Records
---
Amino acid sequence: MEEIYSILMMVGTFVLAISGALTAMERKFDVFGVFIIAFVTSIGGGTLRDILIGKDVFWIFDPTYPYIIMGGSIFALVFNKCLEYLRSTLLVFDTVGLALFTILGAEIGLSYDLNMLSCVILATITGVVGGVLRDVLVNEVPVIFRKEIYATISIAGASLYLLLKLYNVGYYITELVPVLFIIILRFIVVRYKISLPGIYKKI
Amino acid sequence: MEEIYSILMMVGTFVLAISGALTAMERKFDVFGVFIIAFVTSIGGGTLRDILIGKDVFWIFDPTYPYIIMGGSIFALVFNKCLEYLRSTLLVFDTVGLALFTILGAEIGLSYDLNMLSCVILATITGVVGGVLRDVLVNEVPVIFRKEIYATISIAGASLYLLLKLYNVGYYITELVPVLFIIILRFIVVRYKISLPGIYKKI
Amino acid sequence: MEEIYSILMMVGTFVLAISGALTAMERKFDVFGVFIIAFVTSIGGGTLRDILIGKDVFWIFDPTYPYIIMGGSIFALVFNKCLEYLRSTLLVFDTVGLALFTILGAEIGLSYDLNMLSCVILATITGVVGGVLRDVLVNEVPVIFRKEIYATISIAGASLYLLLKLYNVGYYITELVPVLFIIILRFIVVRYKISLPGIYKKI
């Protein structure tokens, strides 16, 4: 159990570092700017989660994560040069990070005996806050509030995970299905440009 | 005492959720965007307060608040359709939330034996941070720094509360007068377009 | 040791309060807006540092810092009127604050037995977060991501400090040289308009 936490966390950290680095490169930030945006994008959600539940912040006493983020940033720098479709690459990494961190957040919520609603909120925070900070720092309206119903997918995935947990289906199904669910759902939404209805001002 | 805390907190949460939801609706966010902005607006100040004084974050282990926020968001959705003057409605809910959370912050500061200056700062943080986060997330210069001397009113209300507490006037006066003071002061300021002098650059 | 912490912290708080106040005055914020931006700029980095390592937030139980910030704000108001070159004044205070807080962050990291990489990160957070918050609040792309390789200098200074500590050179050299290194490096960078290479998108 502890082990799957660590693996989820490391892979999620790596892919979100790439997502952050690609965004920073698009804005022509310098190399340290790229590293800082990668750092904030990948540890932002988990850091807020740990502060909220009063847990030691996961990367402070363990240098593994900063090293993974450095690795992700360097990977993005190299990757960038071979690739022509930055936008869609960004989407892939961002989506995998969203899926892994959402489920990780829900797991940690359960392990702290939080109620279901708080688990969903914690899962969503873990999944989306890094991307929100990234967007606030580069001074955009966060992606979460634009299209692609980003947060909605995270909420749906976390709810599915808690449901599978509740009905006690097999271990691997509980861990894998919600992750795949989030990834596939996001690609469908982006591909077919689905969006939730806004509630327009009547005046 | 504990009881009045809870009531202040619940009513404040409800009205600030409405304020956040109305802002998000004005920007044509989708339904989950509306809920998230409502959530951040109403728990932002209290969350930062609890983190700063090292207290358990109030909504993590208690699902009451997230449910109240859902209620406020739904209320805003329905309310929105009957109303023509969104701007002034927003002002009412925002102001009541500012007043309730400011006094709540001052009370919690006192109960932690903080000095007067820290109590005022904690009160102001509790009162205004939710609104600041809301504005940062929708990518505006926060309302606090524009007109309507928002934070100034919060500081004045908190100081009045601490003064009444110091001179030990009756319980209900101490609780109610500063709340009304903040609400009335803000309406006067908005009505007569009062603003503090800026300090203009001489060059 | 404790003593030099306090002195670094107080001087750093004072100069960053001035830097924040000058920025707010340039934007024609009202007097409380000036104080709030001064407050956030000078305590932002240290507050995040203390929250991350689970330490009591330094200014909550000790009113010294809020008073120093008030002093810095008032100093900036007076200073402003005698000065014609606001931009370069802002640079001086911002740079001294960056230097002092960076070294302070590294020291506190060491005193918590953090590994070297986390010390550098903590030092950089302490040094730059106040300025980032200031810029986000006034709705700009943070200075850190524009030119003048702000964060890079902080990282270099923190690394130099840890190196000197490791090789156990004299106490005063360890404390003073990295501070001067950061200040001089920033002035050179600004004077000769040096910037790190961006990694441009190839598409």
---
Amino acid sequence: MNNDEPTSNGGLIRLRLDISYDGEFFNGWAKQEKLRTVQGELERIFGFIFFAETPLTCAGRTDSGVHARGQVAHMDVPENKWREIEAQGLYRLNRALAEDVRVLAVQVADKDFDARFSALARTYSYRIADGAVGPLPLNRKSVLSWPDRLNDVAMAQASDLLLGEHDFTGFCRRREFATTIRTIQSFTWERTTEYLCATVTADAFCHSMVRSLMGALTAVGEGRKPIEWPASMLNATERASDVPVLPPHGLTLEHVRYPSQAELAARAADTKKRRQRPDYRESVHGSH
Amino acid sequence: MNNDEPTSNGGLIRLRLDISYDGEFFNGWAKQEKLRTVQGELERIFGFIFFAETPLTCAGRTDSGVHARGQVAHMDVPENKWREIEAQGLYRLNRALAEDVRVLAVQVADKDFDARFSALARTYSYRIADGAVGPLPLNRKSVLSWPDRLNDVAMAQASDLLLGEHDFTGFCRRREFATTIRTIQSFTWERTTEYLCATVTADAFCHSMVRSLMGALTAVGEGRKPIEWPASMLNATERASDVPVLPPHGLTLEHVRYPSQAELAARAADTKKRRQRPDYRESVHGSH
């Protein structure tokens, strides 16, 4: 944190939270009336600690049953309240939360930091134990069991064809007025002695996209579909009806990547500089 | 498997099973009337598959709540029944078992292989997430949560003093007529970003020994006891009353070490040779 820069904003300070959860007993991230959700649990605890309604914004709104090791969220809290509990903040938050969600770290963030809009990339993993044994018992809540051996070489080849910027309408649950153009930056497969693990990084994902991609790729891994089949559905105009959506418990949000603190600050300074230029309104909003 | 050697014995064949389980919903390994146990579950399934009562012998009789990644057991089954299902054996066993116990491998073993008595060493791990955060939610069933930071350097020094052959009566639940002399072969500590992991290998362990050792060592890690304290209880004549037994869920049986197949065979051949010598009775049982 740069002490020369004010981080409070009208008495509020922005916190960045790094969060992990076991999705099994959550109805996903997003708050819903009468259902247990990660956002709902966290906002309730924060409200209790800060005596304030504190809406939480996250990087990846995970579905019901999906896990997270590296979810990131931000919230604005009264600076004086935070300073009172800062030293014991992490301990108090985790003590108040149930064991299936943990705040791994909490820190005062740059006021320009936005967990959702500052994120450069999200990384998800999907684990499948393919074969007679299934997942190790201690890992069974986060690894899908698949009865037959999958051809991971074919799946990796099919994944390579998905790299880059495409319209993923074929793999997404449609939402009105929302773009489904995304850029897959990397897509790798690793076989351990226990399971196959796919790791996919994109600027962002649309709804159920990773699980749909995995559904298409496992069809290739089973030999039911050719290697080119998943990529053939890129830039489709509607959701592919024959792509199964794999179960949520194999999926984990692993990591969210942000610009460095220095880059964030530089960007903020740059924005500020532009706002101080007399031609700012013209250059940004165009002529009137 | 050496095809020159008969592996069946009166129509029976010896199987070696490598087994993993999540101990949470088991009342330990050992069969008990009306309780769910690992041995009870496995023997029931094997009885169902082989139409035979098949007592199972394991390397480490874990307590209620203790996990295993590398448990080993043996059993004798009718050779003809095994040959019938061999190709699908692993798949059928695991399909019949609940997801919290898995047979990782099943193979025909040398008739001299004994899961308990052939074992050269057992390795257990104990995991403790010490600090404000606690275990990652997906690992919370196998990692103990400890609210304060432990001094792992002091704990490692205290562990070093436990190496070698000692009478561990001070750390064991006493059993009549059973020796409590054991040899600790290695005792290491590793700190990951998430937890502290102790890994301890001995020829064998007596009842609740690892959890008692961990109780003594965490007292050192907290600074409540000096580094020499755990070793001062070696060769005691009764159980130390001020050693807490840590909870079972942090404990996992990781690995059992056996002589190689060649060593087992050599030992068996050696035994056979001695039995064929005319002076065998004298040399083994002494003079009459």
---
Amino acid sequence: MKLYDGGRAPNPRRVKIFLAEKGLSVPLEQVDLGKLAHKQPEYTAVNPLQRVPALELDDGTILTESIAICRYFEALHPEPRLFGQGARDEAMVEMWQRRIEFHLLVPISQVFRHAHPAMKEMEVPQVPAWAESNKPRVTEFLEILDRELKQRRFVAGDRYTVADITGLVCIDFMKPARLAVPDTLSNVKRWHAEVSARPSAKA
Amino acid sequence: MKLYDGGRAPNPRRVKIFLAEKGLSVPLEQVDLGKLAHKQPEYTAVNPLQRVPALELDDGTILTESIAICRYFEALHPEPRLFGQGARDEAMVEMWQRRIEFHLLVPISQVFRHAHPAMKEMEVPQVPAWAESNKPRVTEFLEILDRELKQRRFVAGDRYTVADITGLVCIDFMKPARLAVPDTLSNVKRWHAEVSARPSAKA
């Protein structure tokens, strides 16, 4: 088994944090995104969508999509439960994981991809107006998240879950996207400090 | 229990098809998207993200995000399995469900939201250049999907799953987005005809 990794890119980082929380270790193969290695024929044969991460199983099966990879490890190594336990709890984790992905990770990515000079060759064409219109969405969602985090310790409840992993990666991805968490959002900042202090955050 | 519905909008439709495949029936409450009812205070109290669908449980808990709602019903009523069964199969279903969502549903939605005159009040500001740059992405993904569907009956394997539901809703959503499946993609067309013929597709 090996994981095709992409350095500090947000999606492979999600899987690496997840593995660290599970106490698992998987051999990594680096795909040099800066050199557009993910767009070359060799990696396109691994994932026709030209995205990292991808997990190659021992029988050669390729599994892509960070959360699909995480779910695979959750099924093989259930503890600690990072996708919740029981119908209601699992649904709440899925809801928050998806809310964070669609309403925070996606708009931050769009700002990064469509406004950052380093992304000119990767995102063709860059649409600066689209980057701009995503900026207020990031803040609007963070305000909603702040109200939620006033009531509980972690994103999806009182236990750390995959929704916290996606959330942590989002906040850290704001820096290269040249965005910042407003100082007034003290609950988001408290939560981010706590999840950043876990050893897994170094992944 | 009741489901806040939004007529023919793609996301509530996913949940309704899922329920039909399970043989389940849930009372619906319509949210009139045309009148922007989802942006009014009453519905914002249900879902601060102002999106449909939302499932209200008997204890008042609100569950949002179509796939979170579907997973909740899968946990309560496991058969027929629409998220796969076993670590590897569940991961493959999740991978395809997410590939279809991010690489087909998202670009089609962006074309619809940023190019359709009816969306002027909902998508502020519309960014026509962003709509344009999503059009080739739709075709590129459909070409990848066509190669996959040459090898098997359904999106994620030889059994119908939630990935087929998301796929069906995508193809049908192409019409209001003023997009069409190229005639050369015969495997996509064969698969779409088959999933459209299931009684659940009427939902």
---
Amino acid sequence: MLVNGLPGEAISAEDRGLSYGDGVFRTLRVQQGYPVSWLLQYAKLSRDCGALKIFCPAAELLLGEIQSLCFQQQDCIAKIIITRGVGRRGYAPTIGENSTRIISISATPQYDTNFFSSGIALHVCQLRLGNQPVLAGIKHLNRLENVLAAGECQEVGLPEGLLQDERGFVISGTRSNLFSLRNGTLYTPDLSQCGVAGVQRERVMAWAAAQGLPCKIKQIRMEELLGADEIFLVNSVFGLWPVREISSYHRTTHPVAWKIQAWLNDEK
Amino acid sequence: MLVNGLPGEAISAEDRGLSYGDGVFRTLRVQQGYPVSWLLQYAKLSRDCGALKIFCPAAELLLGEIQSLCFQQQDCIAKIIITRGVGRRGYAPTIGENSTRIISISATPQYDTNFFSSGIALHVCQLRLGNQPVLAGIKHLNRLENVLAAGECQEVGLPEGLLQDERGFVISGTRSNLFSLRNGTLYTPDLSQCGVAGVQRERVMAWAAAQGLPCKIKQIRMEELLGADEIFLVNSVFGLWPVREISSYHRTTHPVAWKIQAWLNDEK
């Protein structure tokens, strides 16, 4: 782990990342010593920092630090946390260049191979996401909703959960973005009120555009989702998991999802 | 500062308090070496930990640590942070007794004395609080909304801001609870959807009960608030500030607020 460029595992207990979750992060896959989709990942990190007026370190600096950590572990998961740094007491933010950066790596998780081929059964989370347009889309450190939702999945023993917002619109998985296919059109939930807009979501939309497959961002209701031809989840760690089952939704073939999955696995 | 009972300023960069804001806190006043309203403060801390299934250290342990820090600074502000501790990667919570506790103290801030006597002008925040009934009331570490709202107040140069929720109900200050008085009844906003239920709010409600002054928890709209006879804010650090001005609301006498203020200052 590197904290502000130095080897170490400790941060100040007065860091605003801890006090208020005042920061952003990204989790990404490293293959052959290089972070997958690095430019997109950095673009999102930089945009998220900008939205909170947190100073974002240069791409070259972060890339160099990730690569130095991955020197002996060329295929792994890297995590970048950028916080507003150590600040004075009180909520009011300091605007400046004293952000804290933390780079860590961990082993690539080994998932059940059936999750990739047959797909997963999805828990419908009881917790509904609150709407906050100012923070929607940002991968910030205020993630208690995801913690509680992941706790629900853990309790029922399912690998992922489906999150809806308070109005009943489908938003995402607890740690993944969602797509559905219906009559030859791909849909992904509107994230203007809540949820995290991940890099894989953007990549799948780019794939669809390149394929000439219509892809629409849309407010999706549960009953609409259950009528889909295919449903799948994407994130930067596991790639793509087709959804085999959500309560009354059962599906065992995912021709389009499998095509995207193969592409996600191949491309960088 | 004490981290898990040991002098130090550092916590693990893998603490879930940093990764996800997975923890709770309290800020309290220490007078003559003893934390004001300690039993109420601990009761809230313990309830908040319980709501997130985080292990809460014993009251005696925390009190002892606060008192040891305040040995040379008998009048100060203490802050307690309890996080879920260092956890495995991923949102899913670990339920156990490995929480992290951080106790720190700082000097009591010196506010403009006019804030206490003449009252303050309140900024009406543009940011609206998102509703999340599962987390409402809890003083957890997901405080980005407060950070952004405090940033607004800082920009306009006002000491506090008024927060409304997305439906337009008045909720609180950015770091304080709100009361209004109208026709001999005290009102404080319903916090079942968002906001933090502070100890001073509870104390003021207890004061009203003891005085025979009716006090109601209520969904309050802005136009209702602006028609109030008195408005004031309370928190554990500054005590009570009457509100002199909110946009079109102007008031210079606060007989009831002043009575409560005197009582808050006297009691422990």
